[in-house]
Design a protein that fits this description.
Shape: globular
GO molecular function: cytosine transmembrane transporter activity
CATH topology: Hydantoin permease
Distance between the termini: 50 Å
Largest sheet: none
Mean pLDDT: 87
CATH architecture: Orthogonal Bundle
Transmembrane segments: 66-87, 114-137, 157-175, 187-205, 232-251, 272-292, 315-336, 357-377, 383-404, 425-441, 447-466
Order of helices and strands: HHHHHHHHHHHHHHHHHHHHH
Protein name: Membrane protein
GO cellular component, one term: plasma membrane
InterPro entries: CodB (IPR030191)
């Protein structure tokens, strides 16, 4: 994932700068700029994480065909890389501000507080899904009943105990030892990538794949989706993979990362993470599930009209044994820990008088409670779509102001220049674009990733129009 998963020395420096306030409200100085190799390592480790163990199998449950999956992922991930390179990295190296400070200059501090709240809560839910992932591995020695694909609530006392125990450990480590977490995660990333590759190779052997046509036929022309799932086509895969990290690229969250880059071309390094994690790892995880579907247990569930579980722990254990259990625990842990930490930072922006330790504990508590409910992990495809859909349009505000603001005759960084703390042009552009297309999605049962780009474009256009109106009124008052 999706994003902000395992940390490298570069990302540790970025977050340290955020916490210390060293560059939080100023441009990154030239002495702290990094070359493209630093970003290569960061993104390579960032996107092969706990989420991948869930997302890969979920693609199989949608009945997707081989062409739609393999080519859809190839092109969708390419669009994500292009978005990082020509939008996020371009603007990040131009201004060198964090996302939050950049937004504050445009929106005003009160409106940024609303954004931070949404960001923090969504981070907590994502971290909760990763606690769920690790719990499926920890539960194997205890013969714990695994959550089913359609489960929403905890299914046993054992599940509750394991999730709570993991949540407490992860939250305390995130609150007290980020430096250790960052260094440990940097070492764990290659292990996790190796585990994905091993899972893929072993699965191909168990599936008796000896040629590319055998590999292609695993998905073939597709099938009916499993109970509770929707049928995925090429466009579902293409748009979902493009916008899986929408909050980070077109949503501009990674301005905080690319403000450290010497040149915009550092944006190309995202391809390392995307094609390792969001291509190889997703397909490898899907192969794990393909092996499990041939088991008597899975066949029995399908015969009864039930969807077989996609619990990552048993899937990895079935392929590579104890190493699989360790890999799933590490992948979930290295995802949940920094995600909880970042959620804490978002909350601290709202309640600055509370220490970093306690806001992180608050975030960890919310994440742990979310982790008790398997639905966040089992419905990860839908949750990730919603996550990007809510946050991405805010990035359109920054993009449209940068590329079209001057031509449209609006004042850049209006909140800073005018002293307003709540830019209504931003608020109404965000709310209307979100509301209109979310209504369309719900009312007409439209896949949410189909409306993410239209909502983003509408938000940018509305921002320009509303800004023109607001700024003209403001100028008339001051005459």
């Amino acid at each position: 994932m999706l994003s902000n998963m395992s940390q490298t020395p570069l990302e540790e420096e970025i977050i340290t700068a955020e916490v210390s306030g060293e560059f939080e409200r100023e441009q990154v100085p030239a002495s702290h700029l990094k070359d493209w190799k630093s970003f290569l390592g960061m993104y390579a480790g960032e996107h092969a994480a706990g989420t991948e163990f869930v997302i890969g199998p979920l693609f199989l449950t949608t009945g997707v065909s081989a062409f739609d999956l393999i080519i859809g992922l190839l092109l969708g991930n390419l669009m994500a890389v292009l978005s990082w390179r020509f939008l996020t990295a371009e603007i990040g190296t131009k201004f060198r501000y964090t996302l939050y400070y950049h937004l504050e200059k445009i929106c005003g501090r009160k409106l940024v507080t609303l954004y931070n709240l949404a960001n923090g809560i969504l981070f907590c839910f994502l971290a909760g899904a990763m606690v769920t992932v690790s719990a499926t591995a920890v539960g194997i020695p205890f013969n714990m009943e695994m959550p089913k694909l359609t489960d929403t609530y905890p299914n046993s006392a054992t599940w509750v105990i394991i999730v709570l125990a993991l949540g407490v450990v992860i939250s305390i480590i995130a609150a007290k030892g980020y430096s250790m977490v960052a260094k440990a995660a940097n070492w764990m990333s290659p292990v996790i990538v190796l585990a994905f590759i091993a899972c893929g190779v072993v699965s191909l052997t168990k599936l008796n794949v000896s040629s590319f046509s055998d590999f292609w036929n695993i998905w073939g022309n597709g099938s009916e989706p499993f109970p509770g799932q929707i049928k995925y086509t090429f466009w579902h895969v293409f748009l979902w993979s493009w916008f899986a990290n929408a909050a980070m690229h077109i949503g501009m969250s990674d301005l905080t990362v690319f403000r450290f880059a010497k040149k915009p071309r550092a944006g190309w390094t995202t391809a390392a993470g995307i094609y390792i994690g969001h291509y190889i790892a997703w397909i490898a995880a899907a192969l794990l599930y393909a092996v499990y579907l041939k088991s008597p247990e899975a066949q029995g569930m399908l015969a009864n009209g039930e969807a077989p579980t996609v619990a990552p722990g048993p899937l990895a254990y079935n392929a590579i044994g104890v190493f699989g259990i360790i890999a799933v625990i590490l992948a979930g842990w290295t995802t949940a820990n920094p995600t909880i930490y970042r959620a804490g930072l978002a909350f601290q922006a709202i309640i600055p008088k509370v220490s970093t330790f306690w806001v992180t504990i608050i975030a960890g508590t919310v994440a742990t409670i979310a982790g008790l409910f398997p639905a966040f992990a089992m419905k990860l495809l839908g949750f990730v779509s919603l996550y990007g859909f809510i946050l991405a349009p805010v990035g359109a505000i920054i993009v449209f102001e940068y590329f079209f603001g001057k031509k449209f005759g609006i004042q850049a960084f209006y909140a800073e220049k005018s002293g307003t703390k709540f830019n209504q042009a931003v608020f109404w552009a965000w709310i209307l674009s979100f509301g209109i297309f979310y209504y369309i999605s719900i009312q007409f049962n439209v896949f949410l990733s189909f409306v993410t780009l239209p909502a983003w474009l509408l938000c940018g256009v509305l921002y320009l129009v509303f800004s023109k109106i607001v700024q003209v009124k403001h100028n008339k008052k001051n005459l």
